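Project outcomes to date are best conveyed with an example. Our students and postdoctoral researchers have been running inverse folding experiments weekly, and each run begins with a structure described purely in tokens. The record below, which covers 436 residues, was selected by the lab manager from last quarter's runs and is presented without edits.
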């Protein structure tokens, strides 16, 4: 076993490779059409590196260790950076208050164990499966209109609105409120729906001179207020929705508090759609770039589950996740000291040749794929089955109904303000197949 006396200190990338450091931190990687050559270099040359004060990890085994290690926390309050900035008065009062009101995603055992067990009582496989018909009808309606027009923006018309509609249906958001809910800004939602970015909390907005977290604080309060109203409404008018199920959930003699239900709804709403948006967008792009795989899925819809797993491996919806070391931890021969932030790059791990043959090849026939796209360990994505079902239905229906779809632009545009997420994905359609 490697001992700490044998461990290396992660190299500071700004010292050993300034050009690569700039590529990673200057904003280019967030919106680049293909970050995977960079990941390949990092995985080989700097598998564990100190980048901008955090430890970045790229190999499969090291990423899996981070995800599963009992001394890796998801609570930013355990980080040395948080404690230093709090002592300096650099963190806003709303930000600090929100840290005390986060969902189980940012809690450690035993609180995480208690909360996730209770939430799982409401978020059941049966409740997820009941959405299948709703998803199929939504996709069919979108494609009917796209075929009529002869074109489709996969992101704007399908990958973004579908998960929003599904999560609204699951949670039980009234039809009259859905346009309002869909208007919440995507950038702030996916990046700051739970205060977790110390950088955003402490940085000054160059244009306005205030913390970038201020706008996120405002949106957070809007989310909290809306779900507070919805919880009160369902207490008086219970139904078959998830809010009613969470209010009724009980385990080991305990129930979720109103504040815990509110935090859970905020988590499920944002994580429930952003993960699916990227899965649907990335997957459609991969299938269009590999016509043989498109045809294979069209001819054999039973490949849909394997196709979804391959998309998750090939171009993960979330490129990385963050943890905090609670103790000194060894990662692949590198010593990570207590209080350090660790960024585990899932997307790089999923193309590690030590675990996947020909990892840069997109092949929906792969079997036994153990990707890390939905995490691993106690924080594995609770909504994974729902995202999978949306993707299976979408990919199958696209390949069955569209003939000779072509990308209007390749590479497509990626958002500059969201890490590795498509801005649009426009395709042109020639004609429609005979009705099934």
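After processing, the design step wrote out the following sequence:
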């Amino acid at each position: 076993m490697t001992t700490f006396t044998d461990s290396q200190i992660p190299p500071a990338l700004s010292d050993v490779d300034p050009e690569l450091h700039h590529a990673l931190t200057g904003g280019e990687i967030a919106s680049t059409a293909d970050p995977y050559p960079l990941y390949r270099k990092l995985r080989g040359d700097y598998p564990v590196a100190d980048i901008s004060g955090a430890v970045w990890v790229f190999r499969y085994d090291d990423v899996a260790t981070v995800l599963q290690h009992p001394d890796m926390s998801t609570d930013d309050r355990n980080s040395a950076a948080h404690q230093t900035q709090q002592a300096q008065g650099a963190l806003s009062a709303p930000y600090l208050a929100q840290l005390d009101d986060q969902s189980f995603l940012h809690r450690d055992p035993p609180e995480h164990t208690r909360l996730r067990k209770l939430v799982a009582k409401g978020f059941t496989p049966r409740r997820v499966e009941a959405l299948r018909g709703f998803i199929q009808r939504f996709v069919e309606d979108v494609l009917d209109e796209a075929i009529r027009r002869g074109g489709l923006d996969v992101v704007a018309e399908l990958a973004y609105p579908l998960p929003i509609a599904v999560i609204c249906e699951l949670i039980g958001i009234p039809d009259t409120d859905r346009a309002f809910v869909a208007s919440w800004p995507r950038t702030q939602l996916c990046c700051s729906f739970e205060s977790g970015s110390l950088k955003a909390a402490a940085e000054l907005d160059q244009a306005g001179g205030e913390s970038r977290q201020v706008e996120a604080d405002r949106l957070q309060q809007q989310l909290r207020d809306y779900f507070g109203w919805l919880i009160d409404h369902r207490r008086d008018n219970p139904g078959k929705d998830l809010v009613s199920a969470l209010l009724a959930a009980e385990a080991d003699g305990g129930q979720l508090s109103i504040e815990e239900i509110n935090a859970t709804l905020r988590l499920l709403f944002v994580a429930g759609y952003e993960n699916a948006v990227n899965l649907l967008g990335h997957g459609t792009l991969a299938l269009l770039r590999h016509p043989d795989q498109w045809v294979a899925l069209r001819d054999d819809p039973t490949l849909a589950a394997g196709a979804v797993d391959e998309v998750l491996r090939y171009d993960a919806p979330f490129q990385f996740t963050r943890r905090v070391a609670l103790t000194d931890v060894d990662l692949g021969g590198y010593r990570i000291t207590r209080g350090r932030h660790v960024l585990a790059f899932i997307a790089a791990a999923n193309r590690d040749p030590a675990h996947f043959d020909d990892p840069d090849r997109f092949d929906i026939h792969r079997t036994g794929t153990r990707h890390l796209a939905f995490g691993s360990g106690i924080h594995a994505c609770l909504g994974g089955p729902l995202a999978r079902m949306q993707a299976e239905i979408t990919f199958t229906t696209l390949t069955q109904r569209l003939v000779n779809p072509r990308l209007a632009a390749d590479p497509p545009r990626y958002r500059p303000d969201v890490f590795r997420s498509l801005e649009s994905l426009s395709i042109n359609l020639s004609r429609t197949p005979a009705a099934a």
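Residues 92 and 201 are 7 Å apart (CA to CA). The longest strand covers residues 321-325. The training component of this project remains on track.
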